[in-house]
TrEMBL record:
<protein>
    <recommendedName>
        <fullName>Glycosyltransferase 61 catalytic domain-containing protein</fullName>
    </recommendedName>
</protein>
<dbReference type="Pfam" id="PF04577">
    <property type="entry name" value="Glyco_transf_61"/>
</dbReference>
<feature type="domain" description="Glycosyltransferase 61 catalytic">
    <location>
        <begin position="154"/>
        <end position="245"/>
    </location>
</feature>
<dbReference type="GO" id="GO:0016757">
    <property type="term" value="F:glycosyltransferase activity"/>
</dbReference>
<dbReference type="InterPro" id="IPR049625">
    <property type="entry name" value="Glyco_transf_61_cat"/>
</dbReference>
Length: 326
């Protein structure tokens, strides 16, 4: 029996063929970190920027040759089908009449011919900023939404993000202790924020909640506190110029990754870690011999309060749309 998506694909193909504009993507996704859904979302966020950029084309996203399926990714594909009508996600492209294809593209840096140099997606060298003294540290960001012009940037921001209500809506996304990278002093942080700002912090754990619940939490909070982890893949859904406070243990702090997602989706990002002296290395020397240990952490609440105070006093933004290190 034909699925709803298969029926919708046929309808879209019939409508868009009249325009004679097709953009067919590559199905060679083998260099991505699949099936981990966060790395799969690198592709789908990039694909979303292409769909938004080429509104007069039918974007043909080929189903990959490798495993990619997860609850989050399938939910995101369904989300795209509800929001955008100029793409299809399909396995067999042999039935396409290539005489009608005006643009055939192995798009996306993570699938380029020079894949070894792009295995983490499009990279952009730019400044990271020390929170303490505004000194500059040069590193690279992973661009989940590469932009070609300002209109593309606006399209992406408007697609994902609502307006920032510019009042304190603080959410803390924690992780279960047995999953690692948990903020151990969650209660202390919430108590100190309440004491300083008279604002309650909404705490949530993303384990075992739906895609819709996850993106809704981001949509309804303009200040997000979270340990490093997969839950941050929903950053684009936070309001425009939202503040993302990513908390890391010295054991593992990949500077290019989620700061790059904030960087390319118009969010303010601060990475908290007790020691940034090893930047741009991802871990302090004592941990270099280990794989990811996913160590739990205590986060200095004083830093969080200082950051929130500055952000709100500065009209709910930071001076630079770069990643701050604190």
């Amino acid at each position: 029996m034909e699925t709803i998506i298969e029926t919708e694909n046929k309808r879209r193909m019939a409508n868009m063929y009249n325009n004679k504009n097709l953009l067919i993507t590559c199905d060679n996704w083998t260099i991505l970190g699949m099936p981990h859904f966060v790395h799969t979302m690198e592709y789908f966020y990039f694909a979303t920027s292409i769909i938004l950029q080429y509104k007069n084309y039918l974007i043909v996203l080929q189903i990959p040759q490798t495993s990619y399926i997860s609850t989050y990714v399938i939910s995101y594909i369904n989300f795209l089908y509800k929001k955008l009508n100029n793409f299809i996600f399909i396995e067999n492209i042999n039935n396409f009449n290539y005489d009608l294809v005006l643009k055939f593209s192995h798009f996306c840096g993570i699938m380029s011919d020079n894949a070894d140099n792009n295995k983490n997606g499009f990279k952009k060298m730019d400044n990271f900023i020390s929170w303490k003294d505004n000194s500059i540290k040069n590193g690279y960001y992973n661009l989940w939404f590469p932009h070609t012009n300002m209109s593309d940037i606006d399209n992406i921001h408007n697609f994902f993000s609502g307006e920032n209500k510019k009042k304190m809506l603080i959410g803390l996304i924690n992780r279960r202790m047995n999953n690692g990278r948990s903020i151990c002093n969650e209660l202390e942080i919430c108590s100190k924020i309440k004491e300083r700002f008279n604002v309650d912090v909404n705490v949530i754990y993303f384990e075992n909640i739906s895609f819709e619940e996850q993106i809704s939490f981001f949509e309804n909070h303009n200040i997000i506190i979270s340990p490093h982890g997969a839950q941050l893949v929903s950053i684009p859904f936070a309001p425009k110029e939202a503040l993302i406070i990513e908390c890391c243990h010295e054991e593992y702090h990949p500077y290019y990754y989620f700061p790059g997602l904030s960087y390319s989706s118009n969010k303010n990002h601060i990475m908290l870690c007790h020691d940034h002296s090893v930047f741009p290395n991802w871990r302090s020397p004592i941990f270099e011999k280990h794989n990811q240990l996913k160590l739990n952490m205590n986060v200095k609440y004083e830093k969080i309060i200082e950051i929130i105070e500055y952000y709100t006093n500065n009209n709910y933004t930071l001076n630079e749309k770069k990643c701050y290190l604190y």
